[in-house]
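Entry 14. Ran structure prediction on the chain below.
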Amino acid sequence: MTLYISKIAHTTCSYLADFKIKLITYDLYKIEQDGELIILRKNVLISFPLVVIVLSVLITGCSSPSSTEKHGFSYEMAPLAVMPIEVQDAPATVKQAYQFAVANPQLLSQLPCYCGCGGMGHTSNYSCYVTDESGDGSLNYDDHALGCSICVDITQDAMRMLDEGKSIEEIRAYVDQTYSRFGPSNMQ
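Output, structure tokens:
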């Protein structure tokens, strides 16, 4: 049986590049079964600024951000909790696209989709996410965008360009130029 006993022997402080570094030296005594005493010396460096930085990052990471910061975007996003379970279980970009569509119908209603969904009755990129609004104000979701990367890519591009400060006209021109090669516009 081996018994370890620790005792702090002394502390020394030094300054290195304007950072206070505390060197704690402690002796670790190891007592073997036969009674022999062995002294092991350990040194631990503790940087106060490093401890403060690590704690700040941990505390900041646990704080609750505001609704627009929560998603890292400068525009409104609908809460994920109001979405159908299929959307909640979808990949992150698809979830974000649905959240954006629900919160920003006025923008996506002005953007076409080029995936060929016009034959399904879709009239804009918005209709790839929402079919209509019920009499009680609740939305009826379209599951088309759950499996269509073109719909989601158009929405993600619109989100990115809004963050870049682009106008709706600039976003529309980009969508038309980039996606028209995939199929006809669903806007008449």
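Residues 69-182 form one domain. Will compare against last week's run tomorrow.
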